[in-house]
Amino acid sequence: YGAERCTCPEAVAAYEKEKAEREAAEAAAAKAEEEKKMRERIKRIVGESGMGDRFLRRTFSTFQLTDDNKRAAAAARRYAEGFDAMLPQSGRQEPGRNGLFIAGPPGTGKTHLAAAIANHLIAQGKPVICMTMIDLLERIKRTYSATGGSESDV
After folding, report:
1. Hey, where are the domains in the chain?
2. If you write DSSP's letter for every residue of the chain in order, what string do you get?
3. How far apart are CA 91 and CA 52, in angstroms?
4. Alpha-carbon distance 66 to 71, whole Å?
5. Angle of CA points 92, 94, 98, to nearest 5°
6. So what's the pLDDT on residue 53?
7. How many angstroms separate the CA atoms of 123 and 38, rounded?
8. Least C-beta-crowded within 10 Å: which of 4, 79, 132, 136?
9. Which region holds residue 26: left if phi is over 0, alpha if psi is between -120 and 50, else beta?
């Protein structure tokens, strides 16, 4: 037979405190496991993204704002922050245009903004491909060798 629990106020309070501590520890362990899975997912996404180290450091907070590029920076941030709303979802009307075209002369921050968008999405666990056209063409070029994979893989 099991022992009966004491029902005095002190014992009830001790039981409830123990239960709350156990639940808090379980919740902390579950949160830590979830965070670990997210870090592993992000690490995998970064590895598959095609982003070199120089791109990984390009974020919205490291972007140098000027009078000439502040509108582009604001548009890029809005795009990154509203990305989920632009994705097609079942049961919802097609969102329509969902791309972002960045154009301008050399040295105005186009690549930095593209990498900042990619880094913002990666931090949320979203898969991203971000590379220069030269790197993309090199990947495609490798598909022509026997061991390079297929163009559709790239």
Report:
1. 9-89+100-142
2. -PPPPP-SHHHHHHHHHHHHHHHHHHHHHHHHHHHHHHHHHHHHHHHHHT--HHHHT--STT----TTTHHHHHHHHHHHHTTGGGS--TTS------------STTSSHHHHHHHHHHHHHHTT-------HHHHHHHHHHTTSTTS--TTT-
3. 38
4. 9
5. 125
6. 77
7. 9
8. 4
9. alpha
Q: Determine the Cα–Cα distance for residues 51 and 133; give it in Å rounded to an integer.
A: 12
Tokens representing 122? 């990666």
Two tokens, residue 112: 């930095």
Q: CB under 8 Å to 94, separation ≥6 — which residues?
A: 88
Task: Tell me how far apart the 2 most distant CA atoms of the chain are, in Å.
Answer: 82
The model's pLDDT over 115-144, given as tens digits with 9 standing for 90+, comes to: 999 999 988 888 888 877 888 888 888 888
Residue 12 is encoded by which pair of tokens?
């009830």
Q: How far apart are CA 147 and CA 81, in angstroms?
A: 39
Phi, psi of 2 (to 5 degrees): -90, 150
For residues 145 and 8, which has the higher predicted lDDT (pLDDT)?
A: 8
Is the C-alpha dihedral spanning 42, 154, 111, 88 positive or negative?
negative
